[in-house]
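Sequence design from tokenized structure. All designs in this work follow the same two-part layout: the structure record, then the generated sequence. An example of the structure record is given first.
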């Protein structure tokens, strides 16, 4: 990646935006110029990048002039308001919200699964939902060997999925409960500290919340399998960072666990974590801050001869959001699907 690119982060001060900034530096993405964009209330702050303090600017109509790439993580309404202005300005936007994921003209990309989809973009590329990304990375290598017929998944989703303020709320509520106080819900409808509850995204008429239907619809689109059967139960749990998932896979023929382990041991983006004697398997505390999706407890479903069970933990902020977006950006650069800037300001 010898050329350099003019990059903007929209939603730079949020949990995912902060991670995007860190990953751009850690992975040495070829940045010619960097803009940090956020709401009016965050304007004026500074954030560090490669030893320099960069100002956070309020996003406006001219924010995307002379920009090649926008990494957006500021929520669906913000993306809908600005994404087409990014494209009109001649840039490509990789959007972390749900605004464009199911738009048939917008590719929904997990680089370990469907990298070629990124080539079809018309200026907007969608980053999938965090739970979908983590599941796709673990299931796709098996699906390639023997197509999955049905997925039943239960998610254990950390506070980080609702942002930095939600993580702080869990910390505050935990202290309050330990001190004998009664915490008042804020970001979440109920206190998450020492508690759990079904995911609080809007409920639909079919009895599944929006988060659960995202896993169905997005997995079908990413896998290119419009008839794939997926049933999800999504739950918020009192974990600060990193989601976990219990996944049951049904195949047409038996899928030996030993074969599944052999495949996943070398699968991109996966780290196999299993010690059956010690009852040691993936945990969110160990997945936090890691790029890989930790997968383990791979076993035969004793209720179905063609069933396979597995357990995973993955960092929701990292692979579930920021890292996936950066990997898409790297893909665009490596395959010349993005035009470079002409001047380099960060040596």
């Amino acid at each position: 990646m010898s050329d350099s690119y003019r990059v903007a982060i929209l939603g730079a001060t949020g949990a995912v935006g902060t991670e995007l900034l860190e990953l751009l530096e850690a992975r040495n993405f070829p940045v010619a110029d960097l803009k940090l964009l956020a709401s009016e209330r965050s304007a004026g702050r500074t954030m560090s990048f490669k030893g320099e303090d960069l100002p956070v600017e309020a996003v406006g109509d001219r924010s995307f002039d002379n920009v090649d790439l926008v990494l957006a993580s500021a929520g669906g309404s913000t993306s809908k308001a600005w994404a087409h202005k990014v494209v009109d300005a001649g840039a490509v936007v990789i959007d972390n919200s749900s605004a464009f994921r199911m738009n048939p003209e917008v590719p929904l990309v997990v680089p370990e699964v469907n990298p070629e989809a990124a080539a079809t973009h018309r200026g907007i590329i969608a980053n999938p939902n965090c739970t979908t990304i983590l599941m796709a990375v673990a299931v796709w290598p098996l699906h390639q060997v023997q197509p999955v017929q049905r997925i039943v998944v239960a998610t254990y989703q950390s506070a980080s999925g609702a942002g930095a303020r939600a993580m702080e709320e869990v910390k505050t509520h935990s202290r309050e409960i330990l001190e004998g106080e009664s915490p008042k819900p804020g970001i979440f409808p109920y206190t998450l500290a020492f508690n759990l509850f079904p995911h609080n995204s809007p409920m639909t008429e079919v009895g599944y919340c929006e988060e659960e239907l995202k896993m169905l619809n997005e997995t079908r689109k990413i896998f290119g399998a419009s008839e794939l059967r997926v049933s999800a139960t999504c739950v918020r749990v009192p974990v600060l960072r990193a989601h976990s998932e219990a996944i049951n896979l049904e195949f047409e023929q038996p899928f030996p666990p030993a074969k599944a382990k052999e495949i996943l041991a070398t699968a991109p983006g996966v780290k196999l974590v299993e010690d059956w004697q010690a009852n040691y398997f993936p945990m969110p505390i160990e997945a936090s801050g890691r790029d890989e999706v930790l997968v383990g407890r791979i076993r035969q479903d004793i209720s179905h001869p063609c069933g396979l069970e597995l357990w995973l933990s993955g960092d929701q902020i990292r692979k579930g959001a920021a890292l996936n977006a950066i990997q898409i950006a790297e893909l665009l650069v490596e395959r010349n699907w993005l035009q470079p800037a002409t001047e380099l300001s960060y040596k």
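The first helix runs from residue 15 to 26. We note this feature because it recurs in several other targets discussed in the main text.
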